[in-house]
Design a protein that fits this description.
Blueprint: H1 7-20, H2 23-27, E1 36-40, H3 47-63, E2 67-71, H4 78-86, E3 93-98, H5 99-102, H6 105-108, E4 120-127, E5 133-136, H7 144-153, E6 157-160, H8 166-178, E7 183-186, H9 190-199, E8 204-206, H10 209-217, E9 221-225, E10 256-262, H11 267-280, H12 284-292, H13 302-322
Parallel strand pairs: 1-2, 1-3, 6-7, 6-8
Antiparallel strand pairs: 3-10, 4-10, 5-8, 5-9
């Protein structure tokens, strides 16, 4: 399975999928003309599920059709991806998942029952929030340089919310760049990770603003860097990695969720759904939702989604491959 970066090949593939799309899919108008399913690759309570329901409700409101969110969990989003691949070619089944389903899973699993490059239409992308690097107050650090100095002199446990995650990548890259020997500990989600930082069992962790907010508010942790090109609105006093002299591209990757359709979806339908998602992102409900999660941006269109996938995807894959994970 190769990562497509040649724009001519992508355009050719898109043209071919349009020609191959069933006539019934192209002839149906308007869209949607029956209940719509959104397959959510992750459980209720997180940002991916919240996006599925908020954007789904907007489609329902605008179209008058019922939108049903189905949480299809497992295999890092692979169960939902396989379900979308097998869905009818009528444009009435969509999926929302995160970057690991399309990128990290290529390394985490020996065989994927879907091809991220060929089986899906990219519809809209939205940020899942920036992941601040938070250090335990006992380190005394308030900047990245101060934490690196601490890590050179002390044993450090680095909390990662999952193997192969963005946190895992950043922890490994900090070790490499600064010649550190931090032990990267993988938790089953963020809750136990932040609990260990809160109690001092861990010295540093990286995860979502929403999940770490309790640690920051309690004064048990200090955010020392954010992986963004500009400072977060919710953490305006925390410098970016770049501002602190760490300009590697890996520290500026977008953590994203994306809406997908089947590859057979015709271009005009892709455009219609993409426009709806961008429009939905401007509503008061979704503006409030993103603010709650400490996210500064809402949905961007399918062209921007492809741009991010093509330019940042290879960086993700390169760094995940460097982690030396044995695929299952």
């Amino acid at each position: 399975m190769t990562f497509l970066t040649d724009r001519r090949r992508l355009l050719a593939a898109g043209a071919a999928s349009f020609v191959a799309a069933p006539l019934i899919a192209r002839a149906q108008s308007p869209w949607p003309n029956k209940p719509l399913r959104i397959l959510c690759a992750f459980p209720a309570g997180g940002i991916t599920d919240a996006y599925a329901r908020a954007y789904g409700d907007y489609i329902a409101q605008k179209s008058g059709q019922t939108v049903i969110v189905e949480n299809r969990l497992g295999a890092g989003g692979g169960i939902a991806a396989q379900a979308l691949k097998s869905a009818p070619d009528d444009g009435h089944t969509l999926m929302i998942t995160i970057s690991s389903t399309m990128l990290g899973n290529r390394v985490m699993f020996k065989n994927l029952p879907y091809d991220p490059d060929k089986d899906f239409a990219f519809l809209a992308i939205m940020s899942t929030g920036h992941l601040p690097l938070v250090v335990q107050k006992s380190t005394g650090a308030r900047t990245l340089a101060e934490f690196v100095d601490f890590a050179r002199k002390n044993r450090v446990s680095f909390g990662s919310y999952a193997a192969g995650s963005f946190a895992h990548i950043v922890g490994a890259e900090l070790n490499r760049r600064f010649n550190l020997d931090m032990t990267i500990v993988h938790y089953r989600g963020e809750a136990p990770m932040w609990q260990d930082l809160l109690t001092g069992s861990s010295q540093v962790a990286m995860g979502s603003y929403t999940a770490c907010k309790g640690v920051l508010d309690a004064g048990a942790g200090v955010a020392v860097a954010v992986p963004t090109s500009q400072r977060m609105k919710t953490l305006p006093d925390v410098a970016t990695y770049a501002e602190q002299g760490v300009s590697d591209k890996v520290f500026d990757l977008l953590s994203w969720a994306g809406f997908f359709g089947k590859a057979s979806m015709p271009p005009e339908m892709v455009q219609q759904i993409s426009d709806l998602m961008v429009e939905a992102g401007k509503t008061e409900r979704i503006q409030r939702l993103t603010a709650t999660f400490g996210i500064d941006e809402t949905a961007r269109d399918h062209r921007y989604f492809r741009h991010i996938y093509e330019t940042q995807g290879p960086i993700w894959l390169d760094h995940v491959n460097r982690l030396g994970i044995t695929p299952s």
